[in-house]
């Protein structure tokens, strides 16, 4: 019995520590969104979390360490999101539906985690986060190119790359407008963003999406 209790105590301490870290990261996300990363302070984060600065320093040595931990967790979740959003597309799926589903997943992530945009596009983000974001951006472009290559099998690699960059650039420009509004106006900007992407891709993709398929036809493959 005594041995069992000794093993349980470290687990409880670890669980309490994880809850405290989650509390501090949530507070940091709120502060970064409100003031930006540069103007944020550990004192403000501790105050938002309802703890003393000394408690914060038990887990994080400075503001940069908090931002890096928060950024790492968000980017891990973002990778899962684009894995779902850029999954292979059934050729019978209309272009409007395929674009709409992908945009909805990305927008939902950014609306649920507005600090992601605040951190990744701020002027003074920590170097580690900038490097991780660059890697995420490159991977995302590769996934978009892979998806496009299945829809445009005869397109030269340079054209696929250019189209992928345009799609991502259009999305990022639209995302800033979406996040800058709320309620019905936000929904309207989401619709506009989808329309822009659809109108851009429609002449390129043609009738490759949405056309009836033979029963033996397989889904498009993404690299």
Automatic annotation (TrEMBL):
Cross-referenced InterPro entries, in alphabetical order? DNA-bd_HTH_TetR-type_CS (IPR023772), Homeodomain-like_sf (IPR009057), HTH-type_TetR-like_transc_reg (IPR050109), HTH_TetR (IPR001647), TetR_C_22 (IPR041674)
Q: Does the keyword DNA-binding apply?
A: yes
Q: Which residues bind DNA?
A: 41-60
Could you tell me which PROSITE patterns the record lists for this protein? HTH_TETR_1 (PS01081), HTH_TETR_2 (PS50977)
Keyword terms, alphabetized: DNA-binding
Q: What is this protein called?
A: TetR family transcriptional regulator
The record, for PANTHER family, names:
HTH-TYPE TRANSCRIPTIONAL REGULATOR RUTR, TRANSCRIPTIONAL REGULATORY PROTEIN
Q: Where are the transmembrane segments?
A: none
Q: Which Pfam families match?
A: TetR_C_22, TetR_N
Q: Does the keyword DNA-binding apply?
A: yes
| UniProt domain HTH tetR-type: residue ranges | 18-78
């Amino acid at each position: 019995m005594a041995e069992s209790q000794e093993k349980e105590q470290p687990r409880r301490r670890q669980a309490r520590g994880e809850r405290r870290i989650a509390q501090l990261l949530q507070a940091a996300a709120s502060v970064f969104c409100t003031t930006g990363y540069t103007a944020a302070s550990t004192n403000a984060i501790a105050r938002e979390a309802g703890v003393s600065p000394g408690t914060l320093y038990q887990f994080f040595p400075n503001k940069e360490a908090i931002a890096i931990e928060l950024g790492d967790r968000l980017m891990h979740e973002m990778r899962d999101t684009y894995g779902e959003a850029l999954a292979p597309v059934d050729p019978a799926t209309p272009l409007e539906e395929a674009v709409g589903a992908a945009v909805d997943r990305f927008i939902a992530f950014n609306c649920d985690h507005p600090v992601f945009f605040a951190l990744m596009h701020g002027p003074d983000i920590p170097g580690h986060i900038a490097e991780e974001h660059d890697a995420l951006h490159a991977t995302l472009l590769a996934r978009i190119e892979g998806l496009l290559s299945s829809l445009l099998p005869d397109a030269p690699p340079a054209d696929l790359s250019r189209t992928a960059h345009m799609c991502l650039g259009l999305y990022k420009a639209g995302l800033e407008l979406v996040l800058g509004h709320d309620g019905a106006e936000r929904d309207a900007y989401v619709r506009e963003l989808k329309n822009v992407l659809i109108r851009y891709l429609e002449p390129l993709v043609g009738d490759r999406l949405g056309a009836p398929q033979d029963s033996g036809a397989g889904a498009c493959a993404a690299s």
